[in-house]
Amino acid sequence: MNYIIIILGLLILWSLIEQKLLVTSSYELTTDKLGGNETISFVVLADLHNHTFGKNNNRLLNEIDRLSPELIIIAGDLITKRMKCIPGNAHRLVEELAKKYKIYYAYGNHEEYFEALCASEDKTEAELYSSWREYKERLNQIGVIFLDNNSCLIHKNNLRFRITGLTLGIEHYEKHKKVDLTNDIIESKIGKSKKKLYEILIAHNPVFFQSYAGWGADLTLSGHAHGGLIRLPFLGGLISPQVKFFPKYDAGLYTEDNKVMILSRGLGSHSGMLRLFNRPELIHITLKG
To answer: Where is the Calcineurin-like phosphoesterase domain (predicted)?
Structure first.
């Protein structure tokens, strides 16, 4: 029994240490939809949950600067539900990044949680919603573009593509069950895809990758799975947020009918969530025509 307690203690200690060990995963994607030989690079931040890497997130900021991205995409859950957004580490991080980079911010389920509080008469929830509104307003004022079921067209010389943020609704994150996501539902939120454009879709929940690809997303950017929390050799992530063991999508690159999804392991955790053999991950992507 003593050995078991010692082993569990060591695993918890390693988990706490590991959550400070940032790793960068880089991907290079080539597509005929982007003209010429031009390239564009960007980083993806997902599931930060107000986590920090060094004082004022200096280690994360320095790593992003080292990568020299042309823009930054936030794939949801920078903040944590039931915690005020301001003051907060996520807000300070985005403020610093916005001084140098154009930022496109799509929602995860934690941002959706705050949006759902808009009609609450509970005093605590009303204060949380007020904090969320202030968070968005401050970031809007410094040029952050929120993609809440809307799109932006990006131009770089002859290179053109579109970034869309899909806000699914809380019902698509419920535990122990999977709600269908049909093409009609997606189109009711963000319209039809542009077949001639390279479509980047930020969709926080990776479970619906086949639906995203069917809609026309050439590249889907997701998070939410936290790498499966505990990663096992040869088996991958152990459990999904929907409490499904060995989920189909836990981390990395996936393909479906020549469409791609890149799924971040995330940068942080929340609610005492354990991460083991699962370092926080910053995603760096280069698109080539």
So the answer is: 41-226
